[in-house]
Amino acid sequence: MGARIGPTLRDNTIESKSEIVKHFEKFIKVNQNLKAELLKRVSIVSYSKGDLIIDANKVGSKSYYITSGITRTYFIKDAKEINEYFSSENEWANSPRSWRTGKPDIYYVAAIEDTTALCINADDMIFLFDNFPELDRYGRLSMATLLDHLIERIASFRFTTAKEKYAHFKQTYPRIYHRIPLGMVASYLGISPETLSRIRANK
Asked: Each residue of 5-48: pLDDT tens digit?
């Protein structure tokens, strides 16, 4: 695919990593012990546009909390990349099944823009859940966000016309739809780039 694999490590000061604490505080109360463990176990990484973040041929043992940029999650079928969903600022990007099972899965994750993220290993997250029971609540609430993505993806198949599909896509990704390349949007919608161009031109 020609994409560079591997992150560039960034400034890993406590101040730079504080975004992860702010994220958890939206769901639960973060005490000093949990805060210290979070800051110790996350690292800041950055990827250039087009970089491959997770390779489907390898175990996706890391999860990325995006602080800037956009990623796409996709699989390959009949030598074509099929985009499944997109993640942006204040969202996680990972390969959920590979993360959970420790085995390779079908999904790749790549950066659409220059992207900076807070990275945590699966083993570190397991440690946190084992030692901080309050994270159970975080797990339940954050899982709801993932389910929302999946439900919206399933809902998109209800729309029969290309115009309806694109309208639903913009509703699903209101903050970032205009930042995603036309070809990737067309792949997500299951329509041709030419059809999507006509829809955009006639908006």
From this structure: 566 555 566 667 999 999 999 999 999 999 999 999 999 999 99
168 or 186, greater pLDDT: 186
Nearest to 54 by CA among 121, 9, 126: 121
**Strand pairing class (43-47; 71-77):** unpaired
Question: In the structure encoding, which two tokens stand for residue 198, read together?
Answer: 């006509």
Q: Give the pairing type, strands 62-68 and 115-121.
A: antiparallel
Q: Where are the beta strands (DSSP E) in the chain?
A: 8-9, 43-47, 52-54, 62-68, 71-77, 80-87, 92-93, 108-111, 115-121
Contact 93, 64 (CB under 8 A): yes
CA–CA separation, 136 vs 141, rounded Å?
A: 9
The stretches of 57-161 forming alpha helices (DSSP H) are 96-101, 122-131, 135-156
Amino acid at 113: E
Its pTM surpasses 0.85? yes
Radius of gyration of the chain (CA): 18
Ordered domains of the chain (ranges, CATH): 8-133 (2.60.120.10)
Q: What is the largest CA-CA distance in the chain?
A: 55
How far CA 39 is from CA of 31, 42, 50, 114, 199, in Å, comes to 12, 6, 28, 23, 46
SS3 of residue 131 by DSSP: helix
Angle, CA of 89, 82 and 193, to the nearest 5°: 90
**Residue 9's pLDDT is what?**
55
